[in-house]
Structures are given as structure tokens and as C-alpha cells.
Amino acid sequence: MELEKENKLVFDHAIRTADILVEMFGSKCEVAVHDFSSLEKSLIHLAGSVTGRDIGSPITDLVLQQLKNGHGEDFANYKTVSGKGSVMKSSTVFLKDSHDRVIGALCINFDISLLIQLGGEVQEIISFKEDVQRNENFYTDVHEVIQSMTRQALEKHFKAPALLDTEEKIEVIRELESKGAFLIKGATEYIASVLGVSKFTIYNYLQKVRMEQSFNNSLGDD
User: Fold this and answer.
1) Phi/psi class of residue 65: alpha, beta or left (left: φ > 0; alpha: ψ in -120 to 50)?
2) What is the DSSP string of 63-117?
3) Which residues of 154-185 are buried (b: 16+ CB within 10 A; e: fewer)?
4) Using alpha carbons only, what angle is made at residue 125 by residues 119 and 130, rounded to the nearest 5 degrees?
5) What is the mean pLDDT of residues 181-194?
6) Burial of 87 by CB count in 10 Å (0-12 exposed, 13-18 middle, 19+ buried)?
7) Are strands 43-47 and 29-35 parallel, antiparallel or unpaired?
8) pLDDT of 119-157, one tens digit each?
9) Max Cα–Cα distance, the chain, nearest Å
10) pLDDT per residue over 14-55, tens digit each?
11) What is the spatial distance between Cα 177 and Cα 169, in angstroms, rounded to a whole number?
């Protein structure tokens, strides 16, 4: 009698848990409570309706296999498919008495069919062309733009700006010009201060870079 009372408490807790889970996760969730005292009609409570079963339905073949193999360990997050073809994420928690004997199970099924469909559509939207990657930074101040572009150009030389030789400084200007840095008002003065030269020196470097580009472009047109 005590054992029956104890088992009843276990199943009562499982039923309350099933109801709460479905209330929390909504109509795509189903939680079944099974009593293994009669495997042929083990389903004693069903919260939600995803698999189309009714009270009195038998235990599933997967859980039955676990029982036959003597496994009373819970198993989570496995894929199942309903009779209607719905794809589900499922988990099974075995219910045990005070003697650690398996007396039933709480089985959670969550229909993810719509999520899979949406996932495919989202993946199509967020996918990129293969082998094409473009980095874009977003700023709140124009000075951040110049500072960031200058820092990135200097990082490639692995030395302090003051230690750069003339050719290295011209290379920095070449990269900044290619990125359009000098289209921003105040860029020349800022870059000059960072490189430790006058803004007229920057103009000279920039003129040299632009002449090179013009010459290379003319060769390309031939």
C-alpha cells in the first residue's frame, strides 16, 4: 500500500510537470506520462497534442528497447518523427521509485517542423557568396573612422609610426588612399600628426601615390 502511495506521488509530480511544460512552451510541445505497470496502455496523461495519441496508448518502441536492454538512464534531445511526418526533438526522463526501480517515464516531444522550414529560409537570406568576405565597421563619429583606418594601416608594419621610413610612410598613405580616407575632411591633418610629419609632406606623398595610380591605370588602358 505504501509503495502504491509512493508511486502515485511520483506520477502526480510528473503530470504536474507535463502540464507546466506545455503551458510554458505552447502548442508545439507535447509531454506524455507513462505508467509501466501496463505497457500495452501505458499512456496515463497527455499534455498537448503533437503525436496524435490518446490516453491508453502503448509505450513507444524506443523506450521499450531501452527497458529491454536494462537501461534506466534518461536520454535527451534525440530526433523523432510523428505518424503525420512532423519532425520532433524528444527527451525521455524515467520515473523511479524509492528502490530505484523504473516505474514509468515522462516523454517530451517538441515539433520543430516549422522551425526547420524557417531555418532553411533564414539560411538562404543570411548566406554569402562563397570565398567573398567583406569587413565593415560601423562608427558613431567621423574621427573614429580616420583613427580606425589609420590604425589598421599602421598595424601591418609592426613598428611605431615614428620609426617608419619614407617608403613605409608612403605605403601607409597608399593604403589609406585606396580606402578613401582622404575624402574625409581633416584626415590629412590627423594622419600627419600620427606619422610625425607636416601636412605638406602628406600632400607630397599623396601626390606621388596618385601619380603612380594614374600611370598604372594608363598602362591598363593600352
Assistant:
1) alpha
2) HHHHHHTT----EEEEEEE-TT--EEEEEEEEEE-TT--EEEEEEEEEE-HHHHH
3) beeeeeebeebeeebbbbbbbbbbeeebbeee
4) 110
5) 88
6) middle
7) antiparallel
8) 877 777 877 665 554 555 555 556 778 888 898 899 888
9) 101
10) 999 999 999 999 999 999 999 999 888 899 999 998 888 889
11) 12
Closest by CA to 105, choosing from 94, 115, 119, is 94
CB atoms inside a 10 Å sphere around CB 116: 11
Nearest residue to 84 (alpha-carbon basis) of 105, 126, 53: 53
Write out the three cell numbers for 52.
496524435
The set of cell numbers assigned to 219 is 598602362
Task: Return the exposure string of 7-34: e unless at least 16 CB atoms fall within 10 Å of the residue's CB, then b.
Answer: beebbeebbebbeebbeeeeebbbbbbb
Residue type at 69 in one-letter notation:
N
Q: Are 102 and 110 in contact (CB under 8 A)?
A: no
| Alpha-carbon torsion, ordered 30, 36, 37, 40, to 10 deg | 70
d(CA 157, CA 168): 8
